[in-house]
Amino acid sequence: MDDLSEKEQLEKFREWWGENGNFVIAGVVLGIAIMVGISQWRARTAAAQVAASSSYEALMTEVGNGNMEAAEIIAAEMYDEYDNSIYSDQARLAMARLYMDKSRDQDAADALRGVIEDGEDEEIARVARLRLAKVLLYQNKPQEVVDLLEGHAEGAFAARYNETLGDAYVALGRHQDAAEAYEIALSDAQRAPTIDQALVRWKLIDLPDPGENSGAPESAAEAPATPAESDE
Questions:
Q1: Of 74, 138, 157, 218, which sits with the fewest C-beta atoms within 10 Å of its C-beta?
Q2: How far apart (Å, rounded) are the C-alpha atoms in residues 89 and 213?
Q3: Do the Cβ atoms of 181 and 169 come closer than 8 Å?
């Protein structure tokens, strides 16, 4: 009975294999192919990250040396090859700084807008938004600063955004709004000291009394341009 049972089991297995063997083999082959594909993808990704990092280091060397032509060549290659990575965003931040050093403020603004509109990393985009606001103040475009920052002053950047908003409101003659923005900035700074609190207090003290606030924006001649500051 035992021998017959084993023969029956063997026969049933042969029948099952005849019906399903090809599917089993195909599944094994597919599984191996997927594992090989994942391994190759990881290897390519790692190689791309190493290459992007190397390009970024080369860019920073040229930026540090003030070599605009060489920096623009490397940056253009990074925008093309690593467009969907944070290295591309970081390259635009670096180029924006170099453009400002070379008095090419509109090129700096364009680079920063690229990070805000197409950036892959939210934190880097917030840095870019703040730096763009500083560039716009330098260009004496306070209303664009307000449009850029209002509704975004939150999180770790709240104090810095509100300070910059306050500066834009001052340039627009909106002194009450400026006072509120500075006060919020000081309040936020109590939790995370990211601004020069003494400087912001002086800005607040220096505001005209409410009765002197006409609400009219200062003219370009009366409102000195604020240089774009480093936010690091």
A1: 218
A2: 41
A3: yes
Burial class (CB in 10 A: 0-12, 13-18, 19+), 69: exposed
Q: What is the pLDDT of residues 56-72, one digit of tens each?
A: 899 999 999 999 999 99
**Using an 8 Å Cβ cutoff, are 225 and 137 in contact?**
yes
Same domain, 146 and 198: yes
Is a pLDDT exceeding 80 seen at residue 151?
yes
pLDDT range class, residue 13, cuts 50, 70, 90: low
Task: Pick left, alpha or beta for residue 133 (phi over 0 → left; psi -120 to 50 → alpha; otherwise beta).
Answer: alpha
Query: Is the domain of 112 the same as that of 153?
Result: no
Q: How far apart are CA 215 and CA 211, in angstroms?
A: 10
Q: Is 204 helix (H, G, I), strand (E, B) or coil?
A: helix
Containing domain of residue 97, as a range? 56-120
